[in-house]
Amino acid sequence: MGVITPLGNDLDTFWQNLVAGKSGIGPITHFDAGAYDCRFAGEVRGFDPALYFKKKKDTNRTDRFTQLAVAAAKNALADAGIVEPLADPERFGCMIGSGIGGLKTTEDQHTVLMNKGPGRLSPFMIPMLIGNMASGIVSMEFGLQGPNFATMSACATSAHSIGEAWRMIRDNDADAFVAGGSEAAIVPLGMGGFAAMKALSTRNEDPTAASRPWDKDRDGFVMGEGAGVIVLEELEHAKKRGARIYGEIVGYGLTSDAYHMSAPLPNHEQAQRSMRVALAKAGLNTTDVDYINAHGTSTPVGDIAEVRAVKAVFGDHARNGLLVSSTKSMTGHLLGAAGAVETVVCLKTINTGLIPPTINLHTPGEECDLDFVPLKAREAKVKVALNNSFGFGGHNVSLVARAFEG
């Protein structure tokens, strides 16, 4: 597993900061945000793309979202003990998506067009900005010649990536995948656009307290950036090479609201179905689930809708033994990278018996009465964890991970 996040650029640092309840959110440094309604975000700090590319010149030919993806993929492959050359590169796939793609490249090149004319546009503009390029460049960097494409479903993007990679391995299209997502939208156009939707928190006086899922004073989500990648393998392939196995992906549910561009159904009926489908494919009952890493973005409407969905699916278990938390309270919302990073979180809870907290949850809002593991991490045995990811456009994905028992 590999992550590049506002809480750290390696798995151990990320996890230590997460269970410590630290916030990775602060004033924006990527550009002067003084005139913006929201002037803070969850930025990746101390990131040097040259450390991850074979050729330094390639850092000038890739957008930041691709650079973050390459770094997370390199970390994941190293964590998996996979080094080049691959034994069978044609059986190793790559599926890394992005919700938005190369927004900084789009913005920068539009400025060039307006100020200097079309003759001054970069010949690398299109390859840098298109959303599939993270998956393409990662495959080139590591010689992955199996199935390769990119999902793009807003905040459900990397959950779709992992689910579709899982499906393709089951269909024998590949033995292994590098799967996940990446996002780098903390640029003027991204911050201004989400603010225009009234989607972002404006708690500029206290950024670390701005992402507060299920709290009565929540006022919108906090933008984050980063990448999450997992190495997903067919079981016998993993065993044969003596791989360390963090857990099994056993269920994948995906549905569509077919309702609204950005708002969920009031009771999140299709999110309910997504969770039910994932559990059915896993052959599990609702009472088997120990932990949910919720979508939990800190929006007034979305948080309640997800709570209603969880209550509808899990019944009495929702209030008796089920633990739920939102790590977006610490990382911000990583958009297309969120599902993968949060799947990593689910697998780490299984392996460590630690549940990351929902920080900033001081006074639960109306209907928000589940055990959200407020403020401090908690020790708990986790055998089964579920991750929810919901995206603009009505995309719903649920992934179920289970402890591997040999």
UniProtKB/TrEMBL annotation:
<dbReference type="InterPro" id="IPR017568">
    <property type="entry name" value="3-oxoacyl-ACP_synth-2"/>
</dbReference>
<dbReference type="InterPro" id="IPR018201">
    <property type="entry name" value="Ketoacyl_synth_AS"/>
</dbReference>
<keyword id="KW-0443">Lipid metabolism</keyword>
<feature type="domain" description="Ketosynthase family 3 (KS3)">
    <location>
        <begin position="1"/>
        <end position="403"/>
    </location>
</feature>
<dbReference type="GO" id="GO:0006633">
    <property type="term" value="P:fatty acid biosynthetic process"/>
</dbReference>
<comment type="function">
    <text>Involved in the type II fatty acid elongation cycle. Catalyzes the elongation of a wide range of acyl-ACP by the addition of two carbons from malonyl-ACP to an acyl acceptor. Can efficiently catalyze the conversion of palmitoleoyl-ACP (cis-hexadec-9-enoyl-ACP) to cis-vaccenoyl-ACP (cis-octadec-11-enoyl-ACP), an essential step in the thermal regulation of fatty acid composition.</text>
</comment>
<dbReference type="InterPro" id="IPR016039">
    <property type="entry name" value="Thiolase-like"/>
</dbReference>
<dbReference type="Pfam" id="PF02801">
    <property type="entry name" value="Ketoacyl-synt_C"/>
</dbReference>
<keyword id="KW-0276">Fatty acid metabolism</keyword>
<keyword id="KW-0012">Acyltransferase</keyword>
<comment type="pathway">
    <text>Lipid metabolism; fatty acid biosynthesis.</text>
</comment>
<dbReference type="InterPro" id="IPR020841">
    <property type="entry name" value="PKS_Beta-ketoAc_synthase_dom"/>
</dbReference>
<dbReference type="InterPro" id="IPR014031">
    <property type="entry name" value="Ketoacyl_synth_C"/>
</dbReference>
<dbReference type="InterPro" id="IPR014030">
    <property type="entry name" value="Ketoacyl_synth_N"/>
</dbReference>
<keyword id="KW-0444">Lipid biosynthesis</keyword>
<comment type="similarity">
    <text>Belongs to the thiolase-like superfamily. Beta-ketoacyl-ACP synthases family.</text>
</comment>
<keyword id="KW-0808">Transferase</keyword>
<keyword id="KW-0275">Fatty acid biosynthesis</keyword>
<dbReference type="InterPro" id="IPR000794">
    <property type="entry name" value="Beta-ketoacyl_synthase"/>
</dbReference>
<feature type="active site" description="For beta-ketoacyl synthase activity">
    <location>
        <position position="155"/>
    </location>
</feature>
<dbReference type="Pfam" id="PF00109">
    <property type="entry name" value="ketoacyl-synt"/>
</dbReference>
<dbReference type="GO" id="GO:0005829">
    <property type="term" value="C:cytosol"/>
</dbReference>
<dbReference type="GO" id="GO:0004315">
    <property type="term" value="F:3-oxoacyl-[acyl-carrier-protein] synthase activity"/>
</dbReference>
<protein>
    <recommendedName>
        <fullName>3-oxoacyl-[acyl-carrier-protein] synthase 2</fullName>
        <ecNumber>2.3.1.179</ecNumber>
    </recommendedName>
</protein>
